[in-house]
Amino acid sequence: MEVMTAVELTDNEFLRQFEATFEGKMAKMEYSLQDRKIFLTKISMPEGTEDHMNDFIIAVFNEVKDREINLVPTSPEIAKFMRSNRRKYKKLLPVGINI
Fold first, then answer.
1. What mean pLDDT do residues 58-73 have?
2. Which of 4, 6, 39, 77 has a 20 to 30 Å separation from 50 between CA atoms?
3. Which H or E run includes 20?
4. pTM as predicted
């Protein structure tokens, strides 16, 4: 069982990105909001923090779930995570979208 690191997530609405700090470095996930959907377009993990990518993605997915909106992962890394965890996060996808 994977142990998830607690992630302190910040929504920088001005830059349209979620931010989290790992080992003193800021990771970013850019997004675009349209209607009741959030498109996760790009993820940037600073060098040396790549091991925390899944924790960051999970934190963002949980935030989206709490907001009760759908997500569309357009970034290849986020789409890959979604495919690997399809059963757990399938309900976050809009109707008719398969990853």
1. 96
2. 39
3. strand 17-22
4. 0.91
